[in-house]
Amino acid sequence: VTSDGYSIGELAARIDADVVGDPNVRITGLGVLGNARAGQLTFLGSPAYRRFLADTRASAVVLTRRDAAGCATNCIVSDNPRLDFARLSQLFDDRPQLPVGRQSTAVVDPSADVPRDASIGQNVVIGARVRLGSGVSIGANCFVGDDCMLGDGTQLMPNVVLYHRVRLGRRCIVHSGSVIGSDGFGFAPDAGGRYETVAQVGGVTIGDDVSVGSCTTIDRGAIEDTVIGNGVKIDNQVQIGHNCIIGDHTLLCGCVGLVGSTRIGRHCVLAGMVGVGSGAGPIEITDGVIVSGLTHVSQSITRPGVYSGGVIFTETRQWKRNALRFNQLDALARRVAELEKRLAAQAGTPENAPDPDDPR
Amino acid sequence: VTSDGYSIGELAARIDADVVGDPNVRITGLGVLGNARAGQLTFLGSPAYRRFLADTRASAVVLTRRDAAGCATNCIVSDNPRLDFARLSQLFDDRPQLPVGRQSTAVVDPSADVPRDASIGQNVVIGARVRLGSGVSIGANCFVGDDCMLGDGTQLMPNVVLYHRVRLGRRCIVHSGSVIGSDGFGFAPDAGGRYETVAQVGGVTIGDDVSVGSCTTIDRGAIEDTVIGNGVKIDNQVQIGHNCIIGDHTLLCGCVGLVGSTRIGRHCVLAGMVGVGSGAGPIEITDGVIVSGLTHVSQSITRPGVYSGGVIFTETRQWKRNALRFNQLDALARRVAELEKRLAAQAGTPENAPDPDDPR
Amino acid sequence: VTSDGYSIGELAARIDADVVGDPNVRITGLGVLGNARAGQLTFLGSPAYRRFLADTRASAVVLTRRDAAGCATNCIVSDNPRLDFARLSQLFDDRPQLPVGRQSTAVVDPSADVPRDASIGQNVVIGARVRLGSGVSIGANCFVGDDCMLGDGTQLMPNVVLYHRVRLGRRCIVHSGSVIGSDGFGFAPDAGGRYETVAQVGGVTIGDDVSVGSCTTIDRGAIEDTVIGNGVKIDNQVQIGHNCIIGDHTLLCGCVGLVGSTRIGRHCVLAGMVGVGSGAGPIEITDGVIVSGLTHVSQSITRPGVYSGGVIFTETRQWKRNALRFNQLDALARRVAELEKRLAAQAGTPENAPDPDDPR
Predict the structure, then answer these.
(1) Region at C5 (left for phi over 0; alpha for psi -120 to 50; beta for the rest)
(2) What's the whole-model pTM score?
(3) With an 8 Å Cβ cutoff, are B335 and A336 in contact?
(4) Residue B350, number of CB atoms within 10 A of its CB
(5) Who among A197, A312, A327 is closest to C327 (CB)?
(6) Does C87 contact A326 at a Cβ distance shorter than 8 Å?
């Protein structure tokens, strides 16, 4: 970000938007609608915050034409304020960039292909036959195993580990503490219940524009590769087992866990702490599925839609009473069926007594 | 800890406690009540262990006056044995300390402010304009990004990553593998379902006396800071999304996950694997709330108290029968209401037939 | 793996198996049954894949005698194809090995005992009095604290942290990003609700043939050690609290979390995201227990068997209706009991009206 920022007119031009107000005012940073100060750009992302428009001190707000009327300051008019604000926000990202070249303590295998415009941080270790694209940036203390490939513009933040034969596409980012390509959890029990290791000889293939959060783990495939599609966004502390296949433009939120060989379609969203897996074999989730937080996806989902599981929390005293009843539910249902039968018998009519096993 | 330890009298004086027995006996280490040996200090933290008092071989036990009578050894009398044992235990902590000064392979930006009494481990990388307080200790292989501030006496254990603009107060400890200040999970979908990154330009502000476990992640704010109050204790593998605000003296146990913008009050306890988040907007938890393990907090909690969710586990065969019934619960409730109506009609009285939607 | 691999006869001899077909054909790699190519070894692990046998292009398949008849290629006959394939797979593991000796940037304390045949990677830091067994391999950027002991053949992958006094047996592997020996989560509240730290002076003792996944955390004991038995296999992102004791040959799958002082028996399997813990004190799980994914084990398990908890997910609309009813379950059960009483009264018989609190 340049020290004197951008004029509102320049910003609007970048997203092909109209300005209501003074296009010459300069924007030097971002703010949230309720607290933004002069010089800051903000946006109206939800009607719930519309009440802040009348007296915001921001220098500009990205909002829909409908909302522009009630706004106390300059407006950048957008059909999709959240998206357009996202695009503009990137101009104000002031994260430090590694200098181009190799820092003094980096150790790079002579067989690695490192372009002149790549940035290699302190204490980085780069293995044999690694190939880095143009503009790649490898943060301090990263380890990049033999035969890895990183596409143009891909960034590893500090303390990332890539095992051997991990391929990342272009413009990816991997945040600190994440590990890609560690062994899948493959063991075969012998007759005595001791576990023999199944060698994990597959790799990991990751598409373009993928984001991987911090302390996330993506295991290498047992034989074939684990595969992450283009545009997939993965949050922190996510665990992806060996040979999972994740479709393009899918979101995996924080702490999601996928058992090995899970397949997830395109444009899915798995909210926080969702777990996917079953003892009965790999699970497949079709395109366009949304799963709400903490749900256990225990079988395949073949239709797009919104899915949930779990229990609604309450005060422990109440919860306990109901939770104990959960473990009597089948008995309770049978008692209800019995009552229905008796009442029907009383009435003397061959009424449609529900089968206790009929889910209705 | 000195090699010859402390006399019981010295220990008691530190916590302003009485001694029953010989104050001159020396204590050189800690033990658990059932196994403690001569020279060791232990405590009675729960009545369940009272049976060990009569023949403990410990040299001293921290316990209440009431329990002193039945104790076979020297006693340090306390109103709160667990707390006083905690205070005394710190005298016997023999963890290795980094030597003061910079280890040979540390790389410190010349603009960083590193006091003479700070300890900087091997392979540490410290960025521009970092300010370290007196007695700060940075373990091997840590990365401290530009413009971070660490208060007096704060310690980073090996392999911690602080991104830029992370501020930690005084006497904090961050355990290995943790990452503070990584990007929040902010993406805006375009019309085609591709995700645009929302720049994360906020920082992280952490108070005094905060403990962060290992492999925990705390994301930087999108625009404003993520904020952790004073005295907050965070266990391992916890995930704290961008712009969360955690009140003073709150405990977040292992594997807790907080969706971005969650607010948690003071003096709360979230037990292991609790997840807080909802698709309907940020959740706020008031002061003094305790949430039991694996609960999904899916809406705000406005009253102090103890809250739970989830299901009580059983043998799979039984569980399955009841779990299938869970998905018929609404139908079952309607059938019960229907039975009630019929019986009331039989009785010929306009009895108070419950509404099927009445939760009673 | 040698470049020209192994003959089928050599492979069969290693596992004491018969060959059906040509024992001289050479195997140079592994494949999955449906996709294997010439030169590859594969196996039939499940009847579901039997259909691939008739036209597999693999050079050999490990399978049972019964299945050999229908196989289009050479067979290695096994009573336990999955186990024997696991054993053979290890011959084809081509993961890079660190060269023997110390890499240029490793920092090893002079008091450490490092045998000549150990491999120490770049930027490794090894503390005082560490003792490494024969053939130990320590990956780049690892930190090994004072007084650690690693048995013969044990491997740390890059970026692992062992705090002081961690003992690992022989032939263990610890994957990247994992932290062993960090402080247990021990705090005692004072009268004002501020937390005092309980010093964690115990260590960690890990047996032989243990595998620890990536980004897994195992805390040191408060006073005595945290103990992991022989042959235990731990997946990624597992959290093991202080003073847990895990029996031999137990499997902890991804994201499992164990509250401090949990005891788990031998030959158990805890599936993904299982959480073990309770506010009421430590939990003990006996030998031979299997717990299915995402179950909350909230009390001790004294009989071997298969256990489950949680709710079966559905479409959110349906789920919500049933989930709301969950919180009325106790009331519903009481209504059913009331109906049963009334019907019994009508019938005029002292029928066995179930007690509403009787779980039947």
Answers:
(1) left
(2) 0.95
(3) yes
(4) 8
(5) A312
(6) no
